[in-house]
Amino acid sequence: MAKPAALALLIAAFATRSGESAVKRLVLAALVASLAGDVLLISPSLFLPGLVAFLVAHAFYIAAFSRGVGFMPSRLALAAVAAFAALILSYVWPGVETGLKAPVAFYVAVIALMAAQAAGRATVLKDGLTVAVALGAFLFMLSDMTIALMKFAHVAWPADQWTLATYYLAQGLIAFCILPRTVGLPGAVPTRGK
Questions:
Q1: SS3 call for 157
Q2: What's the whole-model pTM score?
């Protein structure tokens, strides 16, 4: 229960932040969908609904990361992330049950698109906050990779030690770095970290 409780606290903290309303709404929706996924995944029998909840979260993140830069602004980022995702998928693929092969493959594709979109955004905007968001997106991939390694490839240590650490850091980096920081009094001009 600690995982959904931690995310609920992150959602409450993020909801108090100021910033571009469209981005804030999209990220808030992604966090709420992630919370739903966390709750569903408490029960192993609800793995597929949990997967769907996180698919929805990644879709909201893709939409948020596309604001102002377009969809997939860097082909190089897309190719690099896709190659990494394909490598991990090929490793766990033999252990994926027949009924889960299509959903798992689709999920890997979507989370790879999310990470590639964040990386592409960082290459366009070129500031510290967008790099931190891209790092968060990549850590989200790594967190899910540890789950796939444990569930489908039966890898235990050290994968089981990194799932929550990378997940918390991923969501935190995205939530606290996606909106520019404001300096000074209310109404101050937003500034981006360098």
A1: coil
A2: 0.89
In a domain, 155, yes or no: yes
Residues 6 or more apart whose Cβ sits within 8 Å of residue 94: none
Residue 92 lies in a domain: yes
Residues 29, 9: Cα–Cα separation, whole Å: 15
Please give the backbone phi and psi of residue 51, each rounded to the nearest 5 degrees, phi first: -60, -45
Residue 79 CA to residue 129 CA, distance in Å, equals 23
Residue 190 lies in a domain: no
Domain that holds residue 120: 2-180
- Residue owning tokens 């905007």: 125
Q: How far is CA 140 from CA 21, 80, 110, 131, 167, in A?
A: 24, 16, 12, 14, 6
At residue 181, φ and ψ (nearest 5 deg) are -75, 145
Question: Coil, helix or strand for 191?
Answer: strand
Domain count, the chain: 1
Q: Say how far apart CA 95 and CA 19 lie, in whole Å.
A: 43
Query: Which amino acid appears at position 39 of this protein?
Result: V
pLDDT, tens digit (0-9, with 9 covering 90-100), for 54-107 = 999 999 999 999 999 999 999 999 999 999 999 999 999 999 999 999 999 999
Question: Over 70: is that where the pLDDT of 185 sits?
Answer: no
In a domain, 192, yes or no: no
